[in-house]
Please model this.
Amino acid sequence: MHALIFQSALEKSASPETFPSHPVYLFRLENREVEKLTKEIRNAAKNKKNAKLKAFKKSLRDMLLKLKGVETHYERKEHLLFPYLERQGFMGPSKVMWGKDNEVRDLFKAALADLERVNTDEELQAYVKKALDPLLEEIEGMIFKEENILFPIAIEKLSAEDWVNI
Model:
């Protein structure tokens, strides 16, 4: 009888990954911060207007270096989450996403190097299309894949003990 009384409340209770100490909660929180940075960079590139190129390049470089912190997120995902999924025999996301993470790393290197070679507003516009937009699109695409594929699969496949270890 007591179980029936509390059943509705229990069914509505938060799932473990919504608790602040759960790794998925933390990964999602990091993704929200990454989204803020990608939006800030997009807005800066779109609204450059009359800013002096040298100052703008420095500001953009600083924002990119801050966004480059996403690599720590990727490393933790690769070294903490992927091994547990692989132990469950689930190899697909690990292989594909690790490869995509490496693509983002390469795009960062190229974006930072290419930015140094920008000397005119026209070159900046070309840089945004050729280097910056692809980088931001890949990062945003990874967030989508994590949130809609990786995290739901991990929540389904991994045990409470796995999450404690992670």
Notes: The CA atoms of residues 80 and 165 lie 9 Å apart. Residues 1-14 have pLDDT under 50 and may be disordered. The two ends are 37 Å apart (CA to CA). The helical segments are 2-12, 23-46, 53-67, 70-87, 92-116, 121-157, 160-165.
